[in-house]
Amino acid sequence: MTGKLLLATILCLMGGQALGDAILEGNYNVTAVCTAVRVGTQLGSIESCQTYYVCQSTGPVQSSCQSGFSYDYKRGSCYPSSEVDCFWGVENPCAGKNNTWVPNTAVCGGYFYCLEGKSAGSGNCPMNQKFDTTTKACVYGSCSNTQSTDGVVLGSLCDVVPPGQYFGDTESCSIWHYCESTSTGLVLQSGKCSTNEQTAYSVLANQCTYESASVCSRVTKVPLIGGAVSCSSNGAKTGDSKVCGTYYVCTNGQNVATYCPSGYYYDVDSENCVTRQSATPVEGCNRCQYATTMFVNAVDSDNCSTYYYCNSQGQATLNTCPADTFFDESRQGCKSDNDLSTYVPLNGACKGASVDGGDNESTTEGTV
Ligand SMILES: *[C@@H]1O[C@H](CO)[C@@H](O)[C@H](O)[C@H]1NC(C)=O
Ligand SMILES: *[C@@H]1O[C@H](CO)[C@@H](O)[C@H](O)[C@H]1NC(C)=O
Ligand SMILES: *[C@@H]1O[C@H](CO)[C@@H](O)[C@H](O)[C@H]1NC(C)=O
Ligand SMILES: *[C@@H]1O[C@H](CO)[C@@H](O)[C@H](O)[C@H]1NC(C)=O
Fold first, then answer.
1. Best of 297, 301, 303 to mutate for ligand 3, by most ligand atoms within 8 A of CB?
2. Is 100 close to ligand 2, i.e. is its CB under 6 Å away?
3. Which of 43, 135, 228, 335 has the greatest number of C-beta atoms within 10 Å?
4. How far apart are CA 316 and CA 300, in angstroms?
5. Of the candidates 173, 162, 165, which has an alpha carbon nearest to the alpha carbon of residue 206?
6. DSSP per-residue string spanning 107-153
7. DSSP 3-state assignment of 12?
8. How confident is the model at residue 53 (pLDDT cuts 50, 70, 90)?
9. Is the pLDDT score of 5 beyond 50?
10. 321 touches ligand 3 (CB under 6 Å)
């Protein structure tokens, strides 16, 4: 119970698209991993099973399988989705499965138990273990502890880098890795170049060589996964943009993920954990977390008319009430604006909302 849980939801991608920006998928820096593998290597995506990246000398280029196909990073190609064990961004990971376990890709070490195509329960592997998709069991190994603010969590490089191929690191020029196929799944093997003076691992030559600026240009000191988010104001708190019950405390220059107790959300006004119903969490975070009903208010300080449908995996789909109504979570439906003023003080998600709209700023809709 003391294990740190990473609770996150898989929602939209927000990656920087501008030329020159690094491609980030949560804690997975695709651009950095591309500098550590041979040119031409294909990497998996953790935001969609259809997406993959081709590492070119200029950086990763995004590519996509045709509809109905998923990318299998272990075989390096697209295959019919039913033949690929991929769960990234999949709305119902239990679809077509009975009496078996599948990973919960939003949580480090998390899994679902599937019965007749539906999730019949979820759980977490014990400390220092992670869920292995191939053996459908918890195996020893750690997953990255760093909280991702983008909603997806890469636990191991061996979940995206093809097995059986050496690659370098961005923290030290001498470190090499490869993903070994074993009976308990893929295991990351790592080592250091240390023979004679040949202390650098050359990705291009795929061997240990002498250090030089070009051989070591990938070394940025930023880790391949789990680069911690830096911060400047010690003690400052920030709510997670996707997970309402998670916030970060700036500690010695790094944001450390902190979790509210079950049933509590991080409240932006008091900067503390507050019971789910009274808390005003970060706008856009997923209020399906800890919800006991199928429909929940979205954080809406304007007119309280937006709400989510929560599926059995706790994933949220945004909806809006018709004109002159607001969403009433206790009554599970849209109600006349006449009752809005009594609803707002008891429901933190709608704090500041009024019939004419709570704030006079023009807001753009459509993004969650
Ligand atoms: C991602 O990797 C690139 C290339 O190594 C680096 O320039 C960038 O700072 C990294 N971004 C983050 C957020 O770690
Ligand atoms: C699903 O698995 C359960 C448990 O093994 C079994 O009782 C049930 O008949 C199975 N359902 C189908 C549709 O195969
Ligand atoms: C709520 O406010 C938004 C933005 O001002 C507006 O577009 C929408 O029509 C309003 N909805 C209702 C139900 O009043
Ligand atoms: C919104 O209202 C506040 C005061 O209620 C006012 O100071 C501010 O200028 C207004 N902003 C806009 C964009 O109208």
1. 303
2. no
3. 43
4. 15
5. 165
6. STTEEEEEETTEEEEEEEPPTTEEEETTTTEEEE-----PPPTTS--
7. coil
8. very high
9. no
10. yes
